[in-house]
């Protein structure tokens, strides 16, 4: 027959719409006010922690809707926002500094929906509320750190080559090496020239000095690496807050934007994000007595450190290596099935480690984790004040001369090994970061934005429904069905896409899609009317109307889709949100307006061979 889909095609259309509706369904259940409890590096979430949380809430007169322990985190669902705030105060006081107690919103969809991946659509900061931070990387500190490390590497390189020198000093942004005589100057120039990528050398025969200067290109690369490294670390720290869809991106030369939708605990967010961490490898001082040091008699050249998990250890002041030379770190098991951490260094770090451990085989080496935690206070010049916290996270005996790849053993259990690997991979910041701007969007303002956006969408939707029903009659009702299905499918598809977030510009994209979706049906219906006026039978008019309008519909939508792709590729933040909803809306509208309405028209009129008139 002229207007008839095969059974498989009808079933395919129904299946696609059903899947879209199924994954849009979780958005009807809303979210519960919740508290998320996770452990800091010195804590651990266990079943006993869960029992402690339950007892504390019961003692505080709170009856939560549910408490679960999953993925090393406790999620407490409350009945209202007031209970959420009370629960946070109770648990913060009860659990102490070893745990992070964060406000959150937990999806309330049934378990069977969650089991198939059905999650509600993630809302952006402007719709859900949350906190916005603009953070600045201290580039001067980054360059100073690089220069200090460079001076240490130059000293090690000259000693390795047997070149005698008077001094290796930092001179502004350069490294100035003073040699004993002209022969040593030539030897040093031969050893250092073209050795360090991104540096150029120059010599002065009159003063027997060699200068290493950082090139402009290397300076820009160093600044870019500092930003990239800090972004990676901030992402790991945001995971501790349990934020569903954070936005972390670079802004300008030395700033990072962090947006945390759903987070209302600004102080906790600042505490986690504002911390600056680094790593150092040092030798354990085995020649002096630890007990004497603990009684205040610390030997010259050594220092007493606290050990994570309790106790103290005496370390030499000499730093073997810092964490920014670490390329990769992975947790695993050694040949005796004991947890270990395998570490890979860059070429410079491998040389430094090899030189330092050459004569220290059999000696223990410690990994020191250093964290700069924002105190919340400011110095006299207005900058953020940091508290330096240092602790030894592992000690291991050097079994052989180490190089670019080695392993650390004696790290406790597998969980400790995995945590240490994470710290080694992304725990070392090149430079401190400071919060220079802070904004909080309250949940009530976010809810008002949602209501305003929904009002605009529904108003446009209803007006289009009325117009289509009056102007195109029964065909208009079919177009309205397709339009409603299109909205459901947009929500369903966005709910299925990991990382997709709905913002106010995204809602504007949906509203634009509502208008564009009926354009396809308007073209089809007007083409059917023209065919009827030319004397075609109703069945021929339907067939030719859909076929002839297809090229015009495809051209219009493809050009708009290209624009959406460009917006997504070059845009940031809210522009990406608009582009995502626009692109998804175009794809779903073409499906519902062309294939979906054709199926309904075929079922309604396609089987009637004696059809004489169409309600269009």
UniProtKB/TrEMBL annotation:
User: Which stretches make up the SecDF P1 head subdomain domain?
Assistant: 305-431
> Would you name any one GO CC term?
plasma membrane
What residue ranges are annotated as transmembrane?
Answer: 453-472, 479-500, 506-528, 549-571, 577-605
Provide the alphabetized UniProt keywords: Cell membrane, Membrane, Protein transport, Translocation, Transmembrane, Transmembrane helix, Transport
For this UniProt entry, the molecular function terms from Gene Ontology, in alphabetical order, are: protein-transporting ATPase activity
Q: How does it sit in the membrane?
A: Multi-pass membrane protein
Pinpoint the Protein translocase subunit SecDF P1 domain residues: 227-285
What are the residue boundaries of the SecD export protein N-terminal TM domain, all occurrences included?
2-103
The record's Gene3D superfamilies line, in alphabetical order, gives: 3.30.1360.200, 3.30.70.260, 3.30.70.3400, Multidrug efflux transporter AcrB transmembrane domain
Q: Which SUPFAM superfamilies match?
A: Multidrug efflux transporter AcrB transmembrane domain (SSF82866)
Q: Report the subcellular localization.
A: Cell membrane
Q: Does the keyword Chloroplast apply?
A: no
Q: Tell me which Pfam families the record gives.
A: Sec_GG, SecD-TM1, SecD_1st, SecD_SecF_C, SecDF_P1_head
The record's section on InterPro entries has:
Acrflvin-R, SecD, SecD-TM, SecD/SecF_arch_bac, SecD/SecF_CS, SecD_1st, SecD_SecF_C, SecD_SecF_C_bact
Keyword Transmembrane found: yes
Q: Which GO terms describe its biological process?
A: intracellular protein transmembrane transport; protein targeting; protein transport by the Sec complex
What's the stated role of this polypeptide? Part of the Sec protein translocase complex. Interacts with the SecYEG preprotein conducting channel. SecDF uses the proton motive force (PMF) to complete protein translocation after the ATP-dependent function of SecA.
Q: Which family does it belong to?
A: Belongs to the SecD/SecF family. SecD subfamily.
Q: Which HAMAP family match?
A: SecD_B
Write down what this protein is called.
Answer: Protein translocase subunit SecD
